Each structure stands twice: as C-alpha cells, then as structure tokens.
Amino acid sequence: MQTALVSWSGGKDSCFAAHQAMQQGLQPKVLLNVLNEAGQISRSHGIPSSILQAQAAAMGLPIHMIAASWQEYEQHFTNALSQLKQQHALTHAIFGDIDLDAHKEWEEKVCNNAGLTAVLPIWHRNRKELVLEMLQWGLETIIVSCNEVMGPSFLGRTLTTDMIAELEALGVDACGENGEYHTLVKNCPLFNHPLKVTTSNPVQHSNYWFTTLKLSEPGFGEI
Question: Boundaries of each Diphthamide synthase domain copy (predicted)?
Fold first, then answer.
C-alpha cells in the first residue's frame, strides 16, 4: 500500500481529501500543518495547535506542525516534506484543493523537490456537489472564519444543507473555495470520537472575521 502525508488545515476539504485518497488505496501516516510565526494557531484557518492535535489523536495519526512566516513558508514546508518522507517512508502527499491552479502548481513543485507525488483527490469536483457529498458522508464542521459578506453571525455555526442555501443566496460559493469561509472539523467517520469545541469573542482582522476556539474535551486541556 502506498503511504502518504496529509496537508492538514483542520477544515473540511483536507479531511475529505484524506478520505477520498484512502478510497483510492493511499494510507495516511502523518498530518502536516503550518502554524503562524508564534506557533500557536494555524496560518490558514486560525485553529489553535491543541485542537489540531486533538483532531490527529481522534484519527489515530501523528501531526507534524511547523511555524513559518509567509516569506519562509515554502522553504519550511519543503523541508518538512523531506523530513517526513524519510521518517514515515512516504510516497505521496495529499492536498484538499479543488480548482485553484496556482495552488496545484505549488503543491506539485514542493512535492517534486521533496521526492513525493502530489495527490489532489477532490480536484475539479463540482463545488456544491462536493460539499453536499461531505455532509452526506457524515462530516460535522463549523465555520471558524469568514468574510464580511457572511459576517460574524455565521461564526461557530455548523455547516448544513440549509446553510448552503443561505450562502448561495448571499452570492457565497457553497464550498468556500474562493476563501469566503474556513471550517473546523469536529467529527467525521475518520475520527474515533467527536471533538468538543466552543466558539466565542468574534474579532475582525481587515475584512475577515475570526472566532476564538476552545477545546473542552477531557484529557486535552483548553486553549
């Protein structure tokens, strides 16, 4: 069986991409996430490292987290790929992008430099069909950041088919692929137990809203 790392954001797309890759015969061995320079929250979604660790524990996988600025991102990411390839005898790296060509080209480049094959299992899927398939699969995910069109009232809400209709009425992409919103997976068939996460204190940075996330599950502490 071919072995892989998962480029893990903590959100729905990377999670479902891992599932789809497993359906294709790949075996995830480790998750990889990039944190901000302080090493406290994920650079892409603003998720605390403790919650990312709890997700990995629920999947029965290790998670490798690196801190990086945007300027150092590619170098640190490539180095991590090379390190994890050796450590876990990896052949592939799984990514959750759907149709942003620049992202795919970058992922293929860094994987090639590290001697890995990039796999994008949900590439060029219809966005609405894809998010509906995620929900049907059993993925439970909440909105953790969003743009001003959506506003702070969406933060902390669970993504549902009814919400997708709300988003489309606002002109927001159903899957958020244009960056309109980001999510946190609380439960899915890949987890051996659900995560208990609370949201509070919405804050705005530039034209984007974020929520404060706390892990309340016993044994993992709180952030």
Answer: 5-215
The pair of three-digit structure tokens given for residue 188, joined into one six-digit string = 């899915």
Which tens digit of pLDDT belongs to each residue from 178-217?
899 999 999 999 999 999 999 999 999 889 999 999 998 5
Give the global pTM: 0.94
CB 40 within 8 A of CB 48: yes
Between the CA atoms of 138, 45, 3 and 58, what dihedral angle is there, to the nearest 10 degrees? -50
Contact 123, 147 (CB under 8 A): no
Q: Is 194 left (phi over 0), alpha (psi -120 to 50) or beta?
A: beta
Q: What does the pLDDT look like over 100-151, one tens digit per residue?
A: 899 999 999 999 999 999 999 999 999 999 999 999 999 999 999 999 999 9
Q: Residue 211 belongs to a domain with what CATH number? A: 3.90.1490
SS3 130: helix
Q: What is the DSSP letter of 48?
A: B
CATH code, domain carrying 77: 3.40.50.620
209: which strand partners? 146, 204
Under a CB-based contact definition with an 8 Å cutoff, are residues 182 and 154 in contact? Answer: no
74 in a structural domain? yes
Residue 177 domain-assigned? Answer: yes
